[in-house]
């Protein structure tokens, strides 16, 4: 991002003009009685006037950016704002690209599926979820199997339980003609942490019970 500047003929110093699209206040748009200043290396420089802060930034041919306007006093940082915006946009693009690369895989089951086939498909689903892909699970009813939809629901419940470590299903199964389907989405990091904690609690409870038995003996 290019930030234009103008030079004062008297002082010979260049002052940078603020032109940001995200409403971030930088350089001459910052007019505050006092700010808490941080330098380009993250080192705190204390509380100064905004004019002093701009002077320090301009002396280094860098920008003064208001990063915490709600703080008391507001916090400003000296930085190369153009480079900062470039890096931020690059990270956002990479994040969007990663999200778009996630696919929806499909696993097909039947109400007469054997245990070996079921476990194989379950392993595939967990692998997909672990890689960040969604999994659509479809139970196909053939011929008179449509009369036993309850078995299809049982299969899906069993399958989602087997995927609980890596995925979850927020919506109930959907009936579409002779198909019964649901969508399993990968767990978010905080959801994985939440699932791990109860397991640890159960283990602790088990140890406490065993210790209680030893003491009673």
Descriptive account of the structure:
The protein has about 220 residues and is of the alpha+beta class. The chain folds into 2 domains: about 80 residues, Ubiquitin-like (UB roll) (Roll), CATH 3.10.20.80; about 90 residues, Translation Initiation Factor IF3 (2-Layer Sandwich), CATH 3.30.110. It is about 40% helix and about 25% strand. It contains 5 helices and 11 strands; from the N terminus they run E-E-E-E-H-E-E-H-E-H-E-H-E-E-E-H. The strands form 3 sheets. Strands 7, 8, 9, 10 and 11 form a 5-stranded mixed β-sheet that branches. Strands 4-3-6-5 form a 4-stranded mixed β-sheet. The protein has a two-stranded antiparallel sheet with strand order 1-2. It starts with a strand and ends with a helix. The N terminus is likely disordered.
